[in-house]
Amino acid sequence: MGNPFENQVVSARKKAEALADEGRLGEAAGAYEDLARAWIASCASVLSASARKDRLDEAEKAKKLAAIYRAKAGKVTLKTSSDDPRHPEGDNNDRDDNGEDGGDAGVDDDPGPCESLDELLGQLDALVGLEGVKREVRLNMELLDFHKMRSENGLANPELSHHLVFTGNPGTGKTTVARLIAKLYRSMGLLKKGQLIETDREGLIAEHIGGTAVKTKAVIKKALGGVLFIDEAYELGKKGQAGNDFGPEAIATLLKAMEDHRDNLVVIVAGYPDLMEYMIKHTNPGLPSRFRTTIHFDNYSAEELVLIFQRYAEKQDHVPTDECIQAVRSHYEKILENPPPDFANARDARNLFEDAHQNMAHRVALIKSSTQNPTLEQLKTMLPEDLPFHD
What is the 8-class DSSP label of residue 316? Predict the structure, then answer.
């Protein structure tokens, strides 16, 4: 192999193969993800285009193996890019990415074994920040538990809507929490499967008359037994590029399904606060009664963004120096004095780490070309000059 990532790749492969042989398929899937990342990292230190292609081919094979083992273990289909260190285990906590065509993005068709309420609330508490969100979710769980106890004792309960509105800027953890809520509702017996189906306007609206209802129903069918998460849901109230106005048809179809499957479907709509408020109040008269609870996701603080950056670094075996962390802190303190409208919060922290990793690869390549192979410490240590905004 002849590059400083050789040991890392070999170690990751051995670990993945050993776990697979032992039948520990879920752990093997994670190990194959690590192998894929190690191969990708090795590309940065290889000058030969053909060698880079070989490494990327091997990385793709590792990703496919991870997907296979996840499927066999009854876990979520692999999305390597969805690792999110806001959760200490980096457990696919969705990066709040938008859906793809047909509403298939982020489909957790089989969320795996049902986890206990305490386990899931522990995962919620482990997320960085989001204190107001955690409080609202816990209150919701207390209400569900209260109703469950009353029902078990033969007492009647008022019928409640479990559908939710999530408001907040991009990268504030909305999809991550939606995934946890799907599992929490399952643990409480409210949902049978607890999968999360992500979609957006493009996944629900067709470009021809009559097609929107069919497309929307297909996405709803996938979500039955779980949660349908509609990101940027306010876009349903806008006309398409061709001037068509099929948004109301999608909303009407959705409302009917929410009524027909009220014991087997939860819908969460998400987007910017003002736009979501307008959508709920003015798009369709049936929306306010279905979406009675709104949970707001605040922007992360500078210190929380630093912690998210550190978790990304830790998960990828990087050790930022104290000076590097202080530079990241100063960077976010300055940004948050007057954050831009498109500031992406945790997603920005992830992008910052990835940019620093890329700059680090170039710096290490220079070390290799001028002296001997870099040491393990040099391969792990992230310096202030690796940050893209460093002078």
Answer: T
302-386 maps to CATH 1.25.40.10: no
Q: Do domains 93-297 and 302-386 have the same CATH topology?
A: no
**Distances 214 to 109, 250, 269, 313, 325 between C-alpha atoms, Å:** 20, 9, 20, 44, 50
Tokens of 21: 């042989």
pTM for this prediction: 0.70
State whether residue 381 is helix, strand or coil.
strand
DSSP characters over 173-242 = SHHHHHHHHHHHHHHTTS-SS--EEEE-HHHH--SSTTHHHHHHHHHHHHHTTSEEEETTGGGGGS--TT
CATH architecture of 93-297: 3-Layer(aba) Sandwich (3.40)
In order along its 391 residues, the chain shows pLDDT tens digits of: 455 556 667 777 777 777 777 667 777 777 777 777 777 766 655 555 556 666 677 777 777 776 666 665 543 333 333 445 555 433 333 444 332 233 334 455 566 678 889 999 999 999 999 999 999 999 999 999 999 999 999 999 998 899 999 999 999 999 999 999 999 999 999 999 999 999 999 999 988 888 899 999 999 999 999 999 999 999 998 765 555 678 899 999 999 999 999 889 999 999 999 999 999 999 899 999 999 999 999 999 999 999 999 999 999 999 999 999 999 999 999 999 998 888 899 999 999 999 999 999 999 999 888 877 889 999 999 999 999 987 6
